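Q: What does the predicted 3D structure of EamA family transporter look like?
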Amino acid sequence: MTAHTANAVTAPHTRSRLSLIALTALAPISWGTTYAVTTEFLPADRPLFTGLVRALPAGLLLLAISRTLPRGVWWGKAAVLGALNIGAFFPLLFLSAYRLPGGMAAVVGSVGPLFVAGLATVLLGERPTVRTLLTGIAAALGVSLVVLKAAGALDPVGLVAALASTASMSTGTVLTKRWGRPAGVGPLALTGWQLTAGGLLIAPLALLVEGAPPALDGRAIGGYVYLALANTAVSYWLWFRGIGRLSATQVTFLGPLSPLTAAVVGWSALGQALTPLQLLGMAIAFGATVLGQLRPRPTGLLTTPPTPTPTSKASPAGRPRPAVPLVGRAAKDPVRR
């Protein structure tokens, strides 16, 4: 295969992969708007109710659209994934945000790619490269520069909650990749299962801790509709669709786009200033996100023929015969692969 032919074959695949990454990235970008919507449109001090309204209506809607319920062992798997990705993640995330100062919850969450890299080694057999580890550290550093502010001592409960929320989402991401989907079931149904299971877990907790639902005005209803539809139903469908087609580490490296989006929305819509240090952090985190999507260049095939050796038979013109392309030899000589 010539270089021109190889490029012609791989170009559509590359475009398709870039489109997949871009669509998956819309999920954390959408999640980055949650803070602004919550503070500007929703009732104060109702994090569990907000998590419930995000998850359960979205899950039921997707179930109605897909018309597919779990079967057999997938009832248990859907419950586990729903608990890890939604039911436990939402409450722990809100608890850490309320108890930790100055964006520390987002900083702890930004180490998610490192969590996933470690879990993927154990559960998926994917060994992290040095580049993956360094990129994960760079992403956490960049997010820290964007959101971290010095404001008091760290609360142990909040810190544990932040670590637990990151571990919960990371484990859910890796298990979603490991278990895949049942035959004939698409990502829409899988997302509906998880959101419904997670919402059902949050419902009794919200009622026990926060009591009856609050009174809602038009602004709050509009905010909740946005969170349930675009911010949750569509975003989690894109997220789980991406997990099914990309590596778990690749998907998690898109996570830093969420705090970066929150900073941009705060600057553009809420009048929050951005310092030069924050801009530097945004550049570092975004660069780490892009670098996290790059795959090692394949080395199994060569498109240029090897240099003729002295043992090559000569042609009638006295020139050495062209060597057999390495692609053809690779099947016969495993050492050359």
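A (community wiki): The structure tokens above were generated from the sequence. Residues 14-291 form one domain. The chain is about 70% helix and 0% strand.
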